[in-house]
Structures
1.
Amino acid sequence: MFNSEVQGDEAERMTKGERTRALIRETALRSFRERGYDDTTIRLIAQEAGVSVGNASHYFPTKSHLVQELYLDVQQGHRTAAAELLPGTTDLVERLRIAYGTGLDGLAPFHRFAPGFLAAAVSPRSPINPLSADSSPALEIVAALFRDVVDGARHGLPTDIARALPDALVLGHLLLALFWVYDRSPGQRRTRRLLDRGLKLLALALPLARLPLLRAPLREALDLIGEVRA
C-alpha cells in the first residue's frame, strides 16, 4: 500500500517504474523504523511490497542503497523541522539549539535500533558510513542546514570564521549522534544535557573569536575540522 507521499495526483504523474520504486522505498523505510537494520532484508521488503526480489534489487541493488534513502528521509525531515523554528530567532546559540535539538528529535524513533545501524556503518569502508561518498547527499542536507543557521544569525564573527564554522558544526552533529547511540538514560536525557552544556560553553567562547590573538589558531582549528569532513 502506497505511503501518502506517493498517493493522489503525484502517483498519477509517476510512471509504473517510478511508482514501484517509491513503493519499495517506503516499504523499506517503514521496516527500518519498525525492525531496525539487522531484521530488514531485501527479501522481506520485496515480500511486503508485493514485488519479486529481482524487481526490488533492480531499483535498490543492496540494503545499503535503501539505508541511504533512510538517511535522506531523516535529514530532509530534520531540515524541515528546523526551518519551521529558525525564523523565530537570530541568536546564533539559540539557532544551534534548534538545529541540534530537531536533529535529536528526528533520530528518537530509531534509538532502540541504533546499535545495529552503528555496527554496520562504523567501518571506514562501509557505504553507509556517514562520512562515505555514498552518504554525501544526506550529509550535504545537514551542512546546508548549518550554513543557514550561521548565515541567518547576528553573531559579529569574522567572515572567515563564520564561513568555516558550519563544517565544525556538522562534525558536532555527528559526534552528538554517536553519544546519543550509547546513551541509555531515559529519553536520552544525558545527550540533551550534554548539548545544553556545550551550547553554554560555546556562548562564552564565541566572542573570543573576535580577538586578533585567537583568530588565527581558531581558523586553523576550523580548517583541520574541514579536512576531517573532506
2.
Amino acid sequence: MELRKDPITQSWVRVGQTEPPPAPGGCPLCPGNMNVPALLELPAGRHAQVRVVPHFHPLYRVEGEVERLPEGIYDRMRPVGAHEIIIESPDHDANLSTLTDAQIALVLDAYVQRITDLKRDARFKYVAVFRNQGSLAGAEFEHPSSQVTATMFVPRRILYELRSARRWYEDKERCVFCDIVRQEERKGTRVVDTQGDYVAYCPFASRVPFELWLQSHRHNHLFERPLPGANRRDLAALLGRSLRRLEQISNAYHLVVHTAPNTITPKSMLVPSYWRTIAEDFHWHIEILPIVEQRSKSYSIKEVYFNALLPERAAERLRQIDPQPAAKSDQKTERHK
C-alpha cells in the first residue's frame, strides 16, 4: 500500500488494498458489538451519544515512517496519517437529520475536537471530515456515522480553493467567500435558509442538482475554532433542516467540511505561500452534494460538471420543503420497508 502522485493533476492516489478484519456479528458500530476503545466520547461516560473510534481497516495509519521515495520522475510515499469513525448515535436506526439540534451539536463538537487534536501532529497537512449517506454515495456503514482522515498532503480540491482565495485577496483585499455570501443574501434567489451567524445556499455554479453550502456570515478560516459569540447550536439546527430538506429530494449525498489546512509545520519546512494570508483569505464551509441522477453526466469530463437544474430553481424548491422531522416511528417504518 502506498500513495502515488500524478505529476499532471498533482493528485495523490492511494494504491493497494487492505484486507479488512473479519466482520463481527451484527453492526460493528452498535454499542453491544463495539470492541475497540473510544478516542472520544461525548458526553463523557457510559451514556455517551457520540463516540469516535479508529477505523477498522484504515486508509491511513499513524504508525511508521513516511518513506518518501522517487521513481524516476514520479513521487510516492507510505500512507501515513489517521482514519477515524465518528459514531453519531448509539441508535442504529437514527440518522443525522433525525437527531435533535442538541445531538447534532454534539456531532459537530466531535468534528471540532478531532480536527483540533489531529492538527497537533505537524506531519499532517490536512484533516478532512466527511459523511457519505446512502448506498449510491458509497456509505460504508448503515449505522449513522461520519469519518475523519488526516493526510500528509492537502487534497487537490482544497488547493484549488486556497489558490483562488489567495488570488482574490491579493486583487481585492477581501475574502471571496464573504463576498459570495453578501451577494447571495442581497439577491436572495439562491439562499435556502439562515439561522444566527449561518446561511445555507445553492452555489451560483452548482456542480450537481440541489448542491448546498453552509457557512458563517462572519469571516472565519477555521471550522474548529469558532468566533467569540458563535452559537454552534444554530449551525446544528440549520444543518438538520438542510439535511431534512435534501432527503426529501434524495436519500444519498456526500457531505464534506472544508477548513483551512494545518499551518503547524516542522521547523525545517518553509510555510507555503498560500498559507501566509490564509486567516484573511480563506473561509470554512460545509459542502453537501446530493446524488439525484443515477446516470448523471456530472463526471463525464473531469473537472467540468453538467447540471441540468438551475441553482435558483433548486433553492426555490428546497425553500418550499417543510424541514420539520416526521414522527420517529414513521421514519423507522419507512427505512425498513
